[in-house]
Automatic annotation (TrEMBL):
GO molecular function, one term: transposase activity
An example Gene Ontology biological process: DNA transposition
The species this protein was found in: Deinococcus sp. VB142
Domain H repeat-associated protein N-terminal positions: 12-96
Pfam family of the protein (one): DDE_Tnp_1
Record protein name field: ISAs1 family transposase
All copies of domain Transposase IS4-like, residue ranges: 106-343
Top-level taxon of the source organism: Bacteria
Amino acid sequence: MTDEQLKLAVSLFAQLPDERKHRGLNHSLVTIVVMALCAVMSGADTFPEIQAFAESKRDWLRRFLDFRRVPDHETFRRVFARLDPVAFQSSALDWIKQAIGGQLEGDIVAIDGKRLRGTSEHEVQGVHMVNVWSARHRLCLAAQPVAGKQNEISTLPSLIDTLALLEVSGCIVTIDAMGTQRAVAEKLVALHAQYLLALKGNQGYLFEDVQEMFSDALRRQISETELHGASTWEDRRRSEKRTSWVLPAHPDLDDYHWPGLRSVVMVESTRTVRGKTATEQRFFLTSLPACSVTALYAVRTHWEIENSLHWVLDVAFAEDDSRTRTDHGPQNLATLRRWALNLMRREGSVGAVNKNRKRAGWDDEFRERLLQQLLPLPT
């Protein structure tokens, strides 16, 4: 990439609000944020490591950033502690909208929370990030911080409002039991998106009624046509078998006033470990028409957010090991990691993420290819 292309690529961060007193500043906010992003892409996990990267790549960074000397690690720490996390996440959302906005029809969009374990201290609960994951594009579409897992429920409606900017019409949004809220279902229906929401005992009589519907159907051994198929998926590596059944929503469920509810789903998982077999039944509400194949695919695909996002953040980016706890620092570093992962996924190089992080640290050309993903798509 040319120097001008690099400058254009990082210019999207110029819109971030800088709350620092401008008198006596040695570094622009763009310089600090872009240095940190490049460092995290290149294997840095802490502020001292970010400083070390910037010092080792000083000449390369000067091709497109204006600075006299590299900020010390305390400067990075202070800036990210004060940076507006909503504005930082909005910049990520703007890029996502530019990259794949309007391309989510038929996609499985999973929403799930992840605890930042290193942010917990003594009796103080740490930060949770509620993440939105596109299975087709393998990108983190959005992430919203909440103070403690119990607050995930209250943040979901506003997160759904954020998704409206990405044109989610026609996608299937999957959420665990925290998302089984009428307000969430209502917002998704208004956006012309489908939903599949986990149903657990905390829904009281609704859970019991759905359980009874399937118990009665299976007890009477009604035909698979009435059950809309019994789709089975087997994982021989783990000795696991999953079977799904789907029933049209019974008129009795109308009393619960669930927006857009068309079907209910039961997935039975049978797992054998060391000769011992355990069976688990899970239930779901969905706006999808009764189809066991689609339901089982959506349930299976939902858990990609654990393997392809949460696990990667912990193993390749050491997210759980991060001890940053000051002010907005934990949320902003979490956003920075998701930026780095998205750019790697968008660039498309094969191989493990931790290997590609090391490659970005060694190879200036590869790092430039990652930054190139920030450029607006040609019209």
